[in-house]
Fold each of these.
Amino acid sequence: MAVNVETLDKLERKMTLTLPVDTIRGEVDARLRKLARTVRMDGFRPGKVPMSVVQQRYGYSVQYEVMNDKVGQAFYEAANEAQLRVAGQPTITEKDGAPEGQLAFDAVFEVFPEVKIADLSTAEIEKASADVSDEAIDRTIDILRKQRRSFAQRAQGSAADDGDRVTVDFAGKIDGEPFDGGKADDFQFVVGEGQMLKEFEDAVRGMKVGESKTFPLAFPADYPGQDVAGKSADFMVTLKNLEAGHLPEVNEAFAKSLGVKDATVEALRADIRKNLEREVKFR
């Protein structure tokens, strides 16, 4: 992996990364093969779905995930090697003109300023409070509930909304021609959670089971897929299934599912408070 770092401003930097295309393709193939061993599809025995079918259905989302993972990993590894203290999230865009067999990316980000510490040998330092509010505990519990939610069929005629899990068939074309990863059947995602591009989620939101619609979608210039980045596509999507998410109740069963020793809500809150206090102390 080649890396170049440029100073744009006092705290702003630009890092140029290049990654081998084979690295991306290899990981995509590996994830698709792993998926093929467990995916279930009508007409095929478990683990016997042809790779071409798995590629058609899941290639788009797997490639998107791999690009995000690999580029993000490469950025933070390079920043660590260059001893850069990155502040916040980088803005990563694909760069044209990469050597053959390579993908190039520009990452613009800020770094923490260098602070010179004065002599504190005689200073009086007040220890930071590690008090954790009940609201912070409630927010943590909400996150844990969301991670353990279940889904159930919504009533006939219901419209897709944020938090619903949808199953869709979709097919996209650019300049009237299909493109790799632009078609999938029985594809699932939760509306409003950012798994798909905003225009895609906006199109599905409000649809009912059995409905189909076409809509335009503009891939952003920094989209991980180089072949479609900055281009406009036309998609057709059909909503096949609609499920509402249900959060588990906060009770003894919920506490037990989280491995709380006493399996009570009080013990759960105490464990969360202890963990949050530990995080505060080590910030």
Note: The first helix runs from residue 21 to 36.
Amino acid sequence: MTPKETTLESLDSAIAELKKSIDNVSDAEVKKELEKTLKNLLRAREKMNPARPFTAHYVVALPFVLIFMLVGIYYFSKILKKECR
């Protein structure tokens, strides 16, 4: 048994079909299980094609880098002023 490769198109079609199925189901327990499955499929799609690009990490890290850089410049300028006296 070889696993089939999942493409984004097939995953999108499976998600669409599952959404239709959830709307047509009347049993609450089955509906709950289908919603769990839908959540897992959406999570799998997110992992295959992340909505947030890698540059989002730079946006988070940039303020910290700037703060450390400014603190470093401040302290090095203090050290240089003391050496010049």
Note: The chain has two domains: 1-51, 55-85.
Amino acid sequence: MAGPGPGPGPGPAGRAPRRAPPSLSLRARRRAAANQQARGGAGGSRRAAGAAMEDVCAKFVSQKISKTRWRPLPAAALQPPDLFATGSWDNEDNRVSIWSVGELGNVGLGGEYQGEPQLLCDIRHNGDVMDMQFLDQERIVVASSTGTVTVFRHHQNNQTLSANQRWEKAHYHVDQNTSCGGAACTGVICNNPEIVTVGEDGRINLFRADQKDAVRTIDNADSSTLHAVTFLRTTEILTVNSIGQLKIWDLRQQRNEPSQILSLTGDRVPLHCVDRHPNQQHIVATGGQDGMLSIWDIRQGTMPVSLLNAHEAEMWEVHFHPSNPDHLFTCSEDGSLWHWDTSTDISEKPSFLHQGGRSTTYFSHSTINQSVVSAWLSNDPTKDRMEITNLIPNQTLSVNSLDILGPCLVYGTDAEAIYVNRQLFA
């Protein structure tokens, strides 16, 4: 999905250019398919996806997919995830949809659903879906290019979606009360009941799901576009912006200034995505317009610990595996999706039987936890320790979003398709 960039770009080769959505008038360039072969990382071994693709189910949905998110599992759950949500963009009629990973009545020997993803319900969404996060197992928070933030409730008894709460123009350029002037809400993160949003307007909002008005707003948090946000700790958030900065905000402090600022050196390319290590919270990964993967240690210094050559174009999302963070996943405008594996022994794959919810931590070996830290924070994390796999052998259009939970991966593309891999670590 093209985001803010140097100017309007051409449409994909072979297609007539589509009109730029209001929020994305600055469309980043599209790369020709011939140039979409992923570069080698900074050392480490690379291999193309082969047998792994056999486990991938594709569903063509006639709309460009901007976001994909697994529904979280109960903390004690042993089964793999079974439902996910998607949002669309750059369509005349954008939608938020809930899917089953397979046919509900078609269950395999292991209890898993079989067949292609099945649409359970959907609802129209005003504007492009810029981000989405599950608040709990029934509610999902959606950020719009219009600046509005909506909480949708999934009614599982009759498989419908309804708007449960809405904050109109949570983000805006000039005046919240005018008929126009909404600024895109670019990122949202949830820690039930709290919801944090960031936007093109450089504003940070803190909402509670059960309250009509914002709990707190930092109006001039940033002079540039904020592209993404995540929780660092319960009371601290991380934001990334369009001038290569990573900022830490302590929501307990009343002053409207970041408690810490880290930044790229040299060309300050926009950062589009951020995630933090689920167990070692000082380790943070970001991706940006140049496709580079940056690893940061927020305890020391103001620059990344590692800069790794990755994609040929913008990196749209980066995610540590929530329960096995020696695995990291990135996706890009160049049509690739990379799996970064820093396991000390590649042949010694971790068990995913106890993945539980996102907050659950489970390692098959007690030594993995320490090896992960040393691998991600070493000066050359790829040296003899990293295997990088492109999970999409035939790259076409942008891979805009991915989500990983247990052994399951879901991702969405501008090729109007969603893909589910239920045996990622087989």
Note: The chain is about 0% helix and 40% strand.
Amino acid sequence: MRLTLLYGGLFFLAGSVLLWFTHLLTARALNQRFVVAVASKVTGVGAPGAVMGTTLPDSDTLAQRVRTNVEQGAADVLSDVLRSSVVVMVLVGAVAVVVGYLVADRALRPLDRVTETAQRLSESTLHERIALRGPQDEVKRLADTFDAMLDRLHRVFDAQRRFIANASHELRTPLAINRTVLEVSLEEPAASEDLKALARALLGTNARYERLIEGLLMLAQSEQEVTARKPVDLRQVVRTAMEQIDLQPRRRKVIVHEDLCPVVAHGDPLFLERCVFNLLENAIKYNVRDGEVWVRLREDEAGVSVTVENTGPPVPPYEVDDLFEPFRRLGGDRVRSARGAGLGLSIVRAIAVAHGGGVEALARPEGGLVVTVRLPK
């Protein structure tokens, strides 16, 4: 439609300029030829052969009258020509706009196919292609380039899925074997206390690596678009996550306040449960002694939201966005892993984005964070 309006506007602009020049040239031709010719003939009024007995005005008066009549006739002719030209230009312009719309619609139809295919694309529909047929013009080359790009994306996603599956097996299996060996050595009666202390330390290290690998795999999986969606009761998700969380980490009791409205979201239940679990776990781990956590569920016209607010150490506002980056912790700590691998909020953001939503965090003036996950209905 925009191309049609542009084409029609240019047509009427060019037609108006042409009509103005035609009117100007026609007026000049009429004034220079007809009036001068009549005036030349009128000056011979007293010549031999003139009709006698007829009283005529003098030549100047007659010439002026003739000139006036001719000028009036020329003006009438110009007015009629202008009026007819405007009508013809409007009619031809309307036809040109209709023809331009049909031509533009036919020419841009392949681009509509490209747009529709791009809008339908997701991880599960990367096999679709435009497969445009026709002459090898600019639109055909664009469609072929788009299909080639989809081929490359399809191969990349397949490689990523294979990598996640292989990494899940190749990385977890050795750690599981190490854990089994260490647990058996702890149960060995002949083991010395030094050996048992070393085994317990290695078990802790092994457990941290298991959490790290699990977090990385979850982050990789959650960054993929969710295709199988179903209604999920977020109140039940919050309660299930609460049952799995230790409310007394490091002997620091934390009180959780719940304000759970009936809220239903559409998505993957396991991913949404992991998202809420990470929010609660992060709010409890990074808290103060006898701290508090508030969990709220809300629904409005824009969608549903899960808000987790906690007391805790003060968070500089300029560091809030960095907390969603992998392996980032408060204060720029990227080494100490006693509280986790630094992937909790990264996974939360990846899951929210995969569901078509988003996440935002605000630092509380008295310490702690307010993290809100928004999901579409």
Note: The beta strands are 230-233, 254-260, 264-267, 291-299, 304-310, 358-363, 369-375.
